[in-house]
């Protein structure tokens, strides 16, 4: 029933749809037809959606195909960590579905092609990298402030996502160093941190960053909204 609804929505939006009714058939058809996008339920016969997603992302032939999970199973964290580009909870909302599919098409049109993530928390880096890579961004990873400064000046990223609380060189020090560097001073920065931002912190950060996302509560939507905000502020960048 859900597959029929999804097929109807996508067909009416102008997409050609191929249907697979179980996990094994899904993998077979993904390899055979090489679709530009896959929508995937978790509750599938023969092989569940988690196994299907893992197998797709671990195969050279299908790893780069964006996968949108559509399921009653609410486990977005696992879905994103395994490589899902989007995670929608049933019942299906037509507009959310079409918007999610459309967002996966022109990856090459993403304004910021190279993003540097600087964070000493490996799980946080993995989480953010999975989100960004699955919608077409090239991601560089640095697990310390010192390494982040070097990558920022070597790779010249289009955007930096930065934690504040790091043991060797803090995020505040990273910002101060980069803002004085001729090659890196103009790179937009999003702070993504579990630290409670105090009024004093805001004074230091004011004028040096373009958005703050609280790590303790941030979701994929929060992160992408912050990136969108930068695009709106710098339409000609």
């Amino acid at each position: 029933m859900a597959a029929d609804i999804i097929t109807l929505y996508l067909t009416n939006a102008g997409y050609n749809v191929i249907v697979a009714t179980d996990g094994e058939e899904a993998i077979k058809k993904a390899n055979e037809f090489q679709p530009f996008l896959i929508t995937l339920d978790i509750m599938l016969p023969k092989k569940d959606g988690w196994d299907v997603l893992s197998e797709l992302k671990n195969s050279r032939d299908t790893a780069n195909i964006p996968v949108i999970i559509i399921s009653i199973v609410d486990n977005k964290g696992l879905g994103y960590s395994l490589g899902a580009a989007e995670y929608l909870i049933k019942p299906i909302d037509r507009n959310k579905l079409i918007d999610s599919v459309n967002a996966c098409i022109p990856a090459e049109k993403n304004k910021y092609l190279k993003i540097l993530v600087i964070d000493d928390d490996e799980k946080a880096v993995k989480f953010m990298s999975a989100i960004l890579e699955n919608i077409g961004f090239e991601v560089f990873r640095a697990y310390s402030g010192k390494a982040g400064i070097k990558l920022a000046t070597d790779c010249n990223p289009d955007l930096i996502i930065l934690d504040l609380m790091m043991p060797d060189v803090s995020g505040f020090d990273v910002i101060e160093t980069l803002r004085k560097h001729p090659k890196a001073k103009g790179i937009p920065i999003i702070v993504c941190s579990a630290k409670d931002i105090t009024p004093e912190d805001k004074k230091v950060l004011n004028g040096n960053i373009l958005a703050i996302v609280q790590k303790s509560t941030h979701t994929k939507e929060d992160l992408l909204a912050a990136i969108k905000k930068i695009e709106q502020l710098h339409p000609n960048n």
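The two ends are 45 Å apart (CA to CA). The chain has a mean pLDDT of 86.
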